[in-house]
Every structure is written in C-alpha cells, then in structure tokens.
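Support request, please re-run this one:
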Amino acid sequence: MTVRIRGIYATALTRLLTDAGMDVVQASGPIEDRFESEFPVERAGATVATTDDRQGVGVSGDSDTVEAVVDCLTDLGRDTLSWADPLPEGAVYDGEVTETLGSGAVVDCGDGEGFLPYRNADERVETGDRVRVQVVAGSAPWTDGRPVLDTTLAVRGEVLTLERGGSNAATAGGPAMLDVIAADPRDGWGVSWERASDDASFDALADALEAANDRAANLDADLDDESATDAPARRHDGGATVWVWFGRESRFALDGHRRAVTATMQGHHRVKAGSNAASAAVDYVEALCDDPTPSGDADFPFAVTARQFGPVEGGSLTLGHGKPDGRLITLGRADVQSVDVDGSVTVEREMSGGGEYDGLGVPKEAGDVAETKLKEGRWWYPTVYRDRDGKRKGTYVNVCTPVEIFPDTARYVDLHVDVLKYADGTVERVDDDELDAAEARGDVPEALADRARSVAAAVANALEP
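Re-run finished. Output below.
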C-alpha cells in the first residue's frame, strides 16, 4: 500500500505508517532529509493531509488503503476519532441545484450537499437545474464548509490526471511523453502530467497511467449503467474519504513517533495545532536544540505557550464543543478571568434571559453569570451558574476528551454523560443513555466510552456532600 503524507503530522505519520508496512511515496524534501532516505515518486493509493485548522487529517484514496491507514491512526489513543465522509473525493453524482450564492451553487447530491463554484461549472447554473458533478475536495465534519464539486469528470492524482473528454495534445509533455512510456490513456480520456511526474521514473509513470485507466474504465461503466435513478443520486463511488480528529493523548503519541526520528519538544503537535505562529515557533526551538525537552507529559510548557500565544487574562476564549458524530458547536465567546501556570483557565459569560439551563431545570435570567473552569488535559470541566447577586443556581459538569486550551478556543469532544449539582446540593448523573447509543453507533469507541463512565462516576462521588 502506498501513501502520500503532507502537513504538520508528516514526520510522525511517516514513521507510524512505514512501521506498519506501508510504503510512503512522494515525500517532501524535509522528510527525506530526516529519514536519510529517498522515497519513490509513484502513484499513492491514499493521501493523508492535515486539515486547515490543524486539528486532524483527511485520508482519501483507494478504499482498502484508506481503511488500513485509518486503522493505524485510530490506534494512536483513546481520543482519536474518525468519520467517513458521505461525499468522498472522486465520487460522481447527478445532483440538483437547491440554491445559488455569490460565488457558486449549493447542490443536493443525495448523500449530502456540495458546493459548485461557478468557475468549476461548464455553463451557467440556476436553482432547480440537474447537474452531473464530481467531488474534488472534501470538508471535515467539524467545519462549516461543504465538499467542493466540479462538472469536469476526471481521475485526479499527484502524478497524472485523466480528464473525461480531454485532449492529449493540449497537455504538457503531450503525446511525446506517451511515446516514451509506450502507453496510452483510455479512449475518450486525455492525460495531463502533474508536478510529481517530473521526478517519477518512466516505469512509475506507466504504472500510474495503467491504474488511472482502470479507474476511468470503472467510472465509464457506472455512467453507462442505464438502471441509474433520477437525481439526486450517486453514480460512481470513486473511493473513500475519512476524517480523523486527533485529541490531546493522540498528539502526544504522535510526538513519540516523531521523537524516534528527530529532535521533538514535548507537546510538539499540541502546540503546532494551536496556530500558525505557534507552529513556526516550534520549528525554531527544535532547529536550535538537539534535545529541546525531556520526555513526560508533565513537562508540557503550558504556561510559556499561553504567555506567548494566548489565552491571556483580560482576553477572550470560545469553547469548541465537539460532538461524537463529528460536528463542532461553538459555545460563544467568554471573558478570560485568569490563566494559571498549572494549565487552569477560568472564563465567564454574562447570560441573556429566556429559557432554562439544560438539565438543571432552572430559569435563565438576564444578568446571570456562567463561570467555567478549564484545565489542560483534564477529562471534565465544570460550569457554575449564578444570579446577578452571586447566588448559585447550579453546576453542570461536562465529561469530555482531554481539554486542549489553544490561543483562541478550548477544544474537546463532549462524551454525552454529564454530572449535575443542583442549588440544594443534590447530585445527579445524566445522559448515560446517549453515551450508550453513541457507542452502539460506533461514534464513541469502547475504550473511550468506558473512560467517560469512570470519569463521570469519580466526578459524581467528589461532588456528593
């Protein structure tokens, strides 16, 4: 199995996946230098790329290879979670335009909605139009984006791309390259040579073209199938796309794999995931020091990281409340009251009136204050609600994956089960049924669900009068 890897996790994942018996291809220059090895330039069965927010990776490509890669990644830690994309890259749909926006159209593909930029459309599209589209870029479930679509159907890769109805004469290298490798694209398809082809051997180019021809033949067969239903409907599977979110334990596990290859500070991936500026600072520290930090989670430099990049007292912080099904809910912006060297951050929000506090059953009144105490690496956090006079109205304790406090947001995945402490001192554990259901659906792995239950039990015991 061949894998192409890009992004801030590349060194660790190259070590992890090669140890698992996979072949890393098209490696970047820094990766070749760190491993003191040359990696072949050939077609990748799957690509692993860091998401734009640095919280995880997307894995796309041949279904078998994607599955094998994801199996390795989810073994990193209890807080590694994954979700299959209902609109995988390469899939082809007969969709219906449901809305037109300033830069493109929203298309109902049946399995979900995609976004068709007008520049990717062969002709003008209007609401109600039926369009045949292909998914060219996915969107992680914890973001607000939609998968990007294109009306040009192709077999896309880093070595070459086959375009349905395309011309060979118009591409760089053109027919001359085809003569050299003694191979031709499938009838009705045109080949274009991508950047990686410059460093690929002739044999690798021929193999990549053969694989692309096979995929093109499968796509042709699916589109020629007369039994296809009306739009919206999937016409061609394409492959698989899976999104993997790394929690705090997983990032430290990745540090260990990277440390086996090169100098790696404690919390390398945890800090890099926070911001571009923090990521650059990590590179600077590691370039200066042969051994930038001793091992051990207790040595994670939270105080220095927060002082340099945030959060800071007097600033603000949002709560990135992830859900086990992959969604992300942002719980507003709160004022930072304090930041302690032990990784504790206290934030407050002034509440608006109306409704009740979930679970507590007490009215939400204007002037109420919600005080949330977060601690880096802890599997739970409490929010205390008080009225304008400071009288406690109740406490809500969220059980979650280990909290990560980034410069602008505290990030975690909620694990459903919670513990309440009412104003009269009564303690109640709630939503075990939701955790049970999430485990049964496969959204929460067994080990993570067991951890959530044990944390909830410990918190409930601690809160008992």
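The longest strand covers residues 409-422. The two ends are 57 Å apart (CA to CA).
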